Amino acid sequence: MDRNSVIGFVLLGALLIGYIFWNQQSTNTAKLEKARQDSIANLNKPKEEQAKVIDSTGGNIVLDSARLQSEYGPFAAAASGTEQQQVLENKLVKITFSNKGGEPRTIQLLDFKTSDGKPLFLQQGSFNRTGLKIPLANNQSLNTSDAYFAPQPVQKNADGSQTISYRLGTSANQYLEYVYTLKADSYLVDYTINLIGMQNVLPKGNINFQWNSQADRQEHNMEQERLNNQIHYRFANKDHDYFTLTNRSQEKLDKPIQWISFKQQFFNITLLARKENFASAEINTKVPESGNIVGQNMTTLAIPYNGAAAYSFPMEVYYGPNHYQTLKRMDVDLEKIIPLGSGIFAFVKYVNKWIIIPVFNFLGSLTSNYGLIILLLTIFIRLIIAPFTYQSYVSAAKMKVLKPELDELRAKYKDDQQSFGVEQMKLFRSAGVNPLGGCLPALMQLPILVAMYSFFPSSIELRQESFLWAKDLSTYDSIYTFGFNIPFYGDHISLFTILMTITSLILAFYNRGMTDQSNPVMKYMPYVFPVMLLGIFNKLAAALTYYYFLSNVISILLQWVIQTFVINHDKIHAKIQANKSKPKTQSKWAAKLEEMQKRQQEIQKTPKKK
């Protein structure tokens, strides 16, 4: 075995050991993270679940009443009771409350359905809990979600709103109260916490408010739902930030917070502090490995209690869709939870805000056919960039006229690319041709394409809107499902994606005269790139791939019409020849570039010393 073989085996062994070590560390980290999340989830379970024991006589599951009594402190009378439910409802939302915890039990959005046509519940199930954590003796605490409140009758107000309240107290002069007011024709609920005579029960300072919320599957594409399942928050200084549940599971916020939002793909639940801000927050999240649960949020918010005998903390809770205009009207920057552009392409959010969304909404006021709306939107965008598109086609025609002369230069210099580049620039300059003239439309379209990439998958207006064979424009338009997954492609065929790819290839063939056919990379990349994107776009929203398909079709038609009926190649040839005879004033930049090319050419020709 020679030296190189030994070194190779040593390196392979080191890589193997490193992989095993990394894998063990990842496994241990995953186990610790799971244990942490399970521990947090267990702490937030209802006390009945924690206090279940087996009856020694009958073998039945019963409650340890002594333990429950000790854990309720001065509120022991509220440890048991009969659950009663009441409803607040308007045209948009139906909220079912329970006196167990004095909290919403279910939240139904009346204008929406799940992907399989069932009623859409933004909240349901025992995991969802909201309540104060009241400190008790022996370092224990009572979560008010475990106590039975005294309900008050539903009150209908003159402005069309409805109010309900729940009280939990030790006497008529010592209680905490939750007051809910559902506004008329709104997704907003006024939620006020009143603490009356509680100064001897609650210490002055921050009181923990526990908010557990679970996002259940609502859409066809579970993967996209989880990618869009996020926690957003806005600090008192108006800074906004967020994280995705699949990327992070814990966050501590030590600054005052104005609002915090548990965002799903198309809906959200948001808590907004109105007069005083939340003092801080500790956020814990979990993404279950299986089932129809998209994600779980367990957030502890600190409410600043000043120790007064009568204290109120007013909030608003938004239960509703991620509709841009609806969220914007709240005037707290809640519309920022809608992903309209991020990362290096964050600037495209302004394209969406100032161009795409206003035009889209205007077209939506004219027709309810979203396939037609996207078509009109595509035509509008192409009209905006039409002057640049025309100039690119003129540039392509000029390059076509110059092709014979370029071929002669290429044959003359063969493999001497440096010399060819110098002479090519001279030819372009003498003919008055800008070789970058065809790039401007592409640069103009890039922000718009990226803006569409963000806008269409996030637009709730497209949710469950059908067009042609696409049953839901907000998700992929599957025409056939394989029953198994193909790597880098998926488990289905999206027809709009196929049409987008085909038209991209046709467009690349049309534009082949604008690329250097002698360079294999430049020659074949326009054909390879659409195929590479096939697997990515196969699982994206049908509205997006439909738009790209339309844009390609319009480009092909425009190019054919302009080059066939508008552009006169003979006139262009004559103009180029006339430009060649005119004296040229070389710009400083062009002169410097030519000088650099000549210097590089001389360096390459200078023989190297041995």
UniProtKB/TrEMBL annotation:
GO cellular component labels: plasma membrane
Molecular function GO labels: membrane insertase activity
Domain of life: Bacteria
Compartments it resides in: Cell inner membrane; Cell membrane
CDD domains cross-referenced by the UniProt entry: 5TM_YidC_Alb3 (cd20070), EcYidC-like_peri (cd19961)
Keyword Membrane applies: yes
Family matches, as InterPro entries: Membr_insert_YidC (IPR019998), Membr_insert_YidC_N (IPR028053), YidC/ALB3/OXA1/COX18 (IPR001708), YidC/Oxa/ALB_C (IPR028055), YidC_ALB_C (IPR047196), YidC_periplasmic_sf (IPR038221)
This protein's UniProt keywords: Cell membrane, Chaperone, Membrane, Protein transport, Transmembrane, Transmembrane helix, Transport
Family (UniProt): Belongs to the OXA1/ALB3/YidC family. Type 1 subfamily.
Functional note: Required for the insertion and/or proper folding and/or complex formation of integral membrane proteins into the membrane. Involved in integration of membrane proteins that insert both dependently and independently of the Sec translocase complex, as well as at least some lipoproteins. Aids folding of multispanning membrane proteins.
Assembly and binders: Interacts with the Sec translocase complex via SecD. Specifically interacts with transmembrane segments of nascent integral membrane proteins during membrane integration.
Protein name: Membrane protein insertase YidC
Organism annotation: Chitinophaga niabensis
